[in-house]
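USER:
Try writing one entry.

ASSISTANT:
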Amino acid sequence: MTSIPRTAARWTAGAILLAGSAAAAVPCASPSFSHFIVVDQFGYTPAMQKIAVIRSPVTGYDAAKAFSPGPVYQVVDATTCAVVYEAAPRVWNGGAVDPTSGDKAWLFDFSAVTAPGRYLVRDRARGETTGAFEIGGNPYRQVLVQAMRFFYYQRAGEAKIAPYADPRWSDKPDHLGPRQDTEARHLMKKDDPSSARDLHGGWWDAGDYNRYTNWHSDYILSLLTTYTENPGIFTDDFNIPESGNGIPDIIDEVKFGLDFMIRLQSPDGSALAIVGSGFGGAPPSSATSPTYYGGPSTSATYSAAASFAYGAKILARFPAYATYAADLKLRAKKAWDWAEAHPDVTFFNKDKAYGDQTLGGGEQEVTPEGRALRAMTAAIYLFDLTGEKIYEDRVVALAKASPLIAKSWFGPSDAPWLQPLLYYAGLKSARANMAGEIKRHYAAVFSSDAVYGAESAWRNPYLAYLPTYYWGSTKEISRQGYFFLYPKELGIGDVPAGADTLAAHYLHYLHGVNPMAKVYLSNMGDYGAENSVDSFFHAWFFKNTPWSSVKSSKFGPPPGYLVGGPNPSYNWTSGCPAISPACGKAPPSPPFGQPPQKSYADFNDGYPIASWEVTEPSVGYQVEYIRLLAHFAAEPAGKSQ
């Protein structure tokens, strides 16, 4: 197949690279940040394709604000105000309105600008101007640091104290009182002290204080994968309590997660499915709700086996964790043995049979097909760890039944099982015929019109095509972007070239190249973003607390939280407006009743307005974003390792 026909040369014919001529100097400040010209608000590396999208709203909440771009767009040095480049924008798709955003669009390619510096993009005739952004070797370093520090602020049971926590977000340890995390009781034995277990630690899963074993394991696997793909960028100086111990902080964070997984494992090898600590408490140390746990399940135990096995392999690289890694290996095998001997044990934490004793915010149990994929994941990492044939036999059998091979299909929601499957295909010890089959199927789906074809055709004017937007769309944006990086990693030679360019546009989308001109990370104004998330749904940073809003509360939420993003299925709680005066007369719009990409607003109302469907963060969103971000971050100069 041919390479991607999207080069700077194609889109900048007749453009002028002015090399910072003093003669071109003009006032470079705009009265206000423009929502009509969207760029990555943090910046670009010199080699990246750099495209500003000029937007004119046609449908949606901002339809009355139509914009007609001038004939010439400029790149302006934000320090000297010199114009360094100018060209005409090119209309997207013949002037059609994009149905997912409700916008017409024009594209201004300024990839020819590669000199390090701070720049603006400006409409010469209209005067509309972006905020300043960086072109340089490592524009995403502080973005990565803040996105990783999210995990420290999400740690359950851990004090957030100086010098690791900013004073605005300092707090005492949470959920450590009577009948809380260190004395958690079984959901069905609430009055039985003998059921108490110490289940402190781990990360709050999202905006609540619950922890779910299947998902928690996914997060550990994703962080380990991110580290192994880009180890040089993860240093020992992200300012967490373990910083300075000679081990990359991402590995220390993984160990914090694994410590919690160990507490979930029973002596027989099984793993508990869920730990629920409720929602209320701002700050978290003020929470008084009791903690309960659910029973073991096959899926949770396969998940534990997977995270123990991969953790054992990676943490064994660090002498300080050698004994710990050896223990993880034993735990992984014990969990596998229990799950294989108990293939159909389930725990549905939202089962109506429990009456009002349901637990957690979301259902963590999986289908039989889901259990098979979790078994496959565990088998892959156990095979890689041990080399034992028993695990690989299961990998091969389960891989053949996976959607990739059985149905020749994958999508963003398939990422948790697709990643380990592709990991297996990249192992030197993998069976050559099985590895080849996995790669062939991936290449076929990747090269199809649904994946590569859709993006290379620029079906989305914001250059990050997603077939469907739904709850948690930012996670799917990150995953879709990462699909373009697998072929290079796997050494698949018969797929289109230029995939890194496609993947980068998905990162730019999350950094502001979208119809909301929104960086979907919280409170990033100190790190280069002019329009980042102001408020979001979280028990700590809830509405009317001192942490509820960057602009209008005493403290605001911390930097670096990725919110769920546009969700066209959003609606207020069923029964509104009759059920409560808090409903108001109609659902808030936006996000309600908007084109998919505009189905977003910064808000943190609880019941019955249900902002969690749009703005709640999640560790699941965060790990997928960090993985994509890490590919484009660089090793810091003079790194601490």
Notes: The two ends are 41 Å apart (CA to CA). The CA atoms of residues 110 and 243 lie 39 Å apart.
